[in-house]
UniProtKB/TrEMBL annotation:
Protein name, UniProt field: Beta-monoglucosyldiacylglycerol synthase
Keyword set includes Amino-acid biosynthesis: no
Gene3D superfamilies per the UniProt record, alphabetical: Glycosidases (3.20.20.80), Spore Coat Polysaccharide Biosynthesis Protein SpsA, Chain A (3.90.550.10)
Organism: Desulfobulbus propionicus (strain ATCC 33891 / DSM 2032 / VKM B-1956 / 1pr3)
Subcellular location: Membrane
Amino acid sequence: MNRSGLIITIIMGCLAVLLWKIVNVPNMEPPWPSKIQGFSFSPFRENQSPSKKIYPTVEQIDKDLATLAGDVHAVRAYTVEDTLAEIPRLAAARGLNVVLGAWITRDEQANEEQIAKLIKVYRENHRNIVRVLVGNEVLLRTDQTVDQMINYIETAKKSIWAPVSIAEPWHIWLKYPKLVEKVDFIAVHLLPYWEGIPVDEAVDYCVMRYNELKQAYPGKEIVIGEVGWPSGGRIRQGAVASPTNQAKFLRRFLDVAEKNNYTYYIMEAFDQIWKKDLEGEAGSLWGVYNDLRQPKFEFTQPVVPIPHWRELAAISIVLAVLILLLLFRDSKGLLDTGRGFLAIIAYAITTFAVWVIYDFQRQYMSISSLVVGIVLLFAATGAILVILAEAHEWAESLWTRKWRRLPKPVEAIADEDLPMVSIHVPAYNEPPDMMIQTINALAQLDYPRFEVLIIDNNTKDPAVWQPVEAHCQTLGSRFRFFHVDPLAGFKAGALNYALRETAPEAEVVAVIDSDYIVEPNWLRALTPHFADPNMAIVQGPQDYRDGDENTFKAMCLAEYRGFFQIGMVTRNERNAIIQHGTMTMVRRKVLDEVGGWAEWCITEDAELGLRIFEKGYAACYVPYSFGKGLMPDTFLDFKKQRFRWAYGSVLILRHHMMAMFGLQKTKLTRGQRYHFLAGWLPWFADGINMLFNLLALGWSCGMIIFPDYLSPPHIVFAFLPVVLFFFKSLKMFFLYRTRVTASRRQSLAAGLAGLALSHTIARAMLTGFITRKIGFFRTPKKAQANAFLKALGDAREELLFTVALCLAIVGVLLREDGDMLDVRIWALVLAIQTIPYAASVLVSLISGLPKLPAKLVGVMAPLRGMNTDEQ
């Protein structure tokens, strides 16, 4: 890291600390009273649950009461089941009063047993039992009717002389005045979190509801049976669950309660992990103390949102510095603006990651939540790596001071000093008219010494290859035609055959595809770069001449340009270009040294380039168009081409894995390894994204079918796919506008075409990890089908994903909690995941309308390279 990078890193680190500090400014809240009136008391610990009939021991209950003794006057119990019947006796020994409760459900026999035991426990411990509650939120759950509850109340009153009531939310009491007549007091639950009330309004809301009951039933004693706020859980409208908000609400409420002489029971003493299955994450996090019986916030000191923010800030800064040490390597040509941009991204990512992990680890983990968390963490790590790689390319493309390795125009070289070039043109079943055009252009080359070898492999119909052979014979001895059938190895096999037939004096092998029409100055302009004895590859860009035919091809042309005017230029700075098999030149001696073209690989060009780099040779990229070919005519062919490229990249990585990760001794530099891995990373991300979509659909189905058991994934993890999508989209748009000099329409069209290939790339990447033989898309058989139906057939998988995701969006939004923020964000994630699939369907439909004019997009300007002095 140079001086400039160090200064920027330090400045951004200071800003990061300042941000942590601002976010964690202490909140001055009223102090917790020295002794509160009451706690809701459930002494269950981890792996204990009333629904599983696993109860705490008497010793554990006594220990919990000892923790509370001295800080509270009374505790509220909810049932007399099992060991919980001992609460009044144990509480008396600790000097605590008790509100005794019976748990009423739909089971009539169980209810009768509860009330009978309630009466028994009361009679044995009546001295410290100040109130009795026959049921908790029974009417809210609709487990019993009002009349049935009145019967239970009257039964209890016959044997209990303490005040008797039931516990319900405020609206239940307002709804049933006749119930109020039968109880000795109103036990109301005031839990504004469940009603979506923002924490700053929550205490006033409780007071309002309390006064509403007081006004409706004057003279009737009101006891607040539950009042509290969870320290974590889903965001409900304006209600955010967090330790800070829990502390704010409770300390503010207690201050108001003391002034107004409320009788209350804080919900609750200890976190109850078992409630997570019933009420979600929030249900387990209402305790003032956590499951380890430790206080979750400050009782008297100022409340800090993240008490350990200094340690977390330090960790995030260290991680950011490590990332920047990697990003700033070999960045002498990067402007300070670019370094500042990378520093912002690095600090933002590490701050976010540290906070997410800190927040996530505060939850109570079950096996299922731990597995989900690990999967989400893995996905988040992948998204972060993609963002960093994309940010690095963004910075280098926009803010490079001067391109160090971008070739400048070379001086004219005498004919006798130019190397002989052998031009190889592989072909299979190509239209003879097109091939003749390609050969005629080669005949017009302004170059003194070259030969042309046309290798037609495995074409069966003589009417296809014989006209080409005949035409070559008219052009003289430097044009040689070979028809070989059978010939194994596909294109690589044909090129190796040509290599064996190459003139001994040829020093350079050049390769073009059979549809390319080259410029006359192609060889004369590029071969001088081989004057450097270490130069093994000189590569020109792929370019196309049919972008003006229709809208679809104009879109494809714009999409191709991004790689050749952005990616290849930045890669060239570190001698890490991707060799592609047309408009490429290779030093003959090096080609022989590495063993020729790899016939096992369907992307033999890129694989050859990597092998040459492993030997320590150099490559040069010249971003000027010296030849133009033809683009795929249909979206299906467009997908097949990209599938082959992506599938081949996986095979290359598998074959060169040890070298790519530095585990095998080669002459690959760190920069070369970085660019190859970073260049493939977005494609791997597409593969992972497809798995994510399958899981997302499954999860969404679960949310729809089992709404009471499945809620959306953690909002933070849902946030990452949204950020990644918009970050990549902004990067693409800005770089197209500045480096490709594309119009807005062309930039959007390129983005749409690129998104349309996401599913194809995903399939290729996943397939490449489990097979070594390429799979092809099946071409629809109904040749007579109209263009619209054929276009839909060409994108049938993407169409199915689009429909499935749209149905999932509708389904999750129709849940009862569809207005909650996390559900809406999950729906937004599903909508964003739908975009690439919908783009595929749209682009396929456009390709099915070949008469749509190219002017709708605009044809890209000729590829003329870049200004080497650009600032």
